[in-house]
Write a structure and sequence with these properties.
Layout lengths: L1 E12 L3 E3 L2 E4 L2 E3 L7 H13 L5 H4 L12 H14 L4 E9 L9 H12 L6 E6 L5 H4 L3 E10 L1
Parallel strand pairs: 5-6
Antiparallel strand pairs: 1-4, 1-7, 2-3, 5-7
Helix pairs in contact: 1-3
């Protein structure tokens, strides 16, 4: 089974940028109900999609104050529990982060290690790519960030 996930957020000053559970910047970050970790949000949707359990908003709605400013790593931990309860496991994860304001490459290994730890995987089962949007659109102008994820489950 394969799941696909996508997430995007507007960027604003005065927020922390957390990607894959790793603090990347403290001057600007996503405008979001939770910590706005687009990497983990796209991964959660990919996992839930692969096992037919809906999407992140169904399980962790932004209308619920329980999830206000929550670490997305905690949400991923809950989704990994759901995955185990369904007697399935992750084969591999492939992520693409699209961002213009900061180089993500220096953080890729940390992101892989953090996600591997949360998901109970070898870091070689996770691939992280970082791209810009070549100055086009809301990402290219520095207004936002996005992440795409594909996850294979067996």
């Amino acid at each position: 089974m394969i799941g696909f996930g996508y997430d995007s957020h507007r960027i604003a000053k005065g927020r922390k940028l957390v990607l894959g559970g790793v603090l990347v910047d403290e001057e600007f970050g996503p405008v979001a109900h939770s910590d706005g970790d687009v990497v983990i949000h796209s991964l959660i949707d990919a996992i839930l999609g692969a096992i037919g359990l809906g999407d992140i908003g169904e399980h962790f709605p932004d209308s619920d104050e329980t999830y206000k400013d929550i670490s997305s790593a905690l949400l991923l931990t809950e989704v990994v529990k759901m995955l185990k309860e369904s007697n399935r496991k992750i084969v591999n994860i492939d992520l693409t982060i699209v961002f213009e304001l900061k180089k993500i490459s220096p953080f890729k290994q940390q992101i892989k290690e953090k996600l591997a730890n949360i998901c109970g995987l070898d870091k070689n089962q996770i691939n992280v790519k970082a791209k810009t949007n070549e100055k086009m659109g809301f990402i290219g102008s520095g207004e936002g960030i996005a992440s795409f994820c594909v996850c294979q489950i067996e």
